[in-house]
Give the backbone structure.
Amino acid sequence: MKILVTGATGNIGRMVVEHLVRLGADDIRALSNHPERTAFPPEVEVVRGYLKRPSSLPAAFEGVERMYLAPVLETVTEVVDLAHRAGVEQIVDLSGDDTTSWQPIAQAVEKSGVAWTHLYTGEFMENTTGWADQIRATGEVREPYPDSADARIAMDDIARVAATVLFGDGHLGRTYNLTGPETLTRAEYLQLLGDALGRKLSFVTVSPEEYTAMLEPTMGDFVQWYITALEARVPRPQAATTTVADLTGHTTKFSDWAAANVHLFR
C-alpha cells in the first residue's frame, strides 16, 4: 500500500512520515518542494512537488492508494481532483470545522469523490512560541483575555493520529476532532511555561485595541478575527476530547510539552 505524505518538509508532514515509519509502513512517498532538506530513512521515497503548484503533482500521485493532505487552501480543489483522477482511494486531510478558515479543505475533499477522513484541529501547543520574545525580554505576556481557554494540541499528536489513520482501517467517512487532553486558560498556559523555565511569568491584561496594534504588523486583516475568537473562548471554553488517546493510546499534556521545549523560551 503506497502512502503519499504531502508537505513532508513541513512541521506536521515530517512527523507524519516519521510515525508511519515507526508503525511499519514500507511504501511511503514524501512530497516536498525542497527534497534536499529531507533526512528520511532510505526506504522513504522523496519526490519533488508543491501543493501550490498542481502541475508538479501528477507523477507524485501515480500508484498512491492513501494520502495525507496538508492544509493548503489556495489550490485544494485542483489538488484533490488530480488525486481522484490518479486513483487515490483515501485522503486524510488536516482541516477544521465551520468555525475555522480551514473548512473549505474538508468540503473540497468530500466533493472530490475520494473516500476521506477529516482531522479537525484548533490551536497548537507550538503557537505559544509566539510569546517567546516577550518572555525572554520582560518575563511578561501582554494580552486582553487571560481567561480565554482552549485545549491546545501538540503537532506530534496530530501527526501520530494521521499516521495511525493512514496505516489502519475503519476510518473512512469519519471526522476526528483532535484536541489536547485538558482545557487551560491563557494565564494557565503561561504559568506552566514559567514552571518549566523555573521562573515567575506575569500575564498583563491590556485592552483589545492595544493588542490589535501589537499584532497588526504581522497578522494584518486576520487580527480582528483572531481577537474575536479569543474573546469568545472566555464564556465558551473549548472542550477537550479524548480522541487522540482513543486512537493512539497517548496524548501530550501541555506541561510535558513545555518541559520538552523549554529551550524555545530561553
Observations:
- The chain has two domains: 3-121, 125-151+181-238+252-265.
- The mean pLDDT is 96.
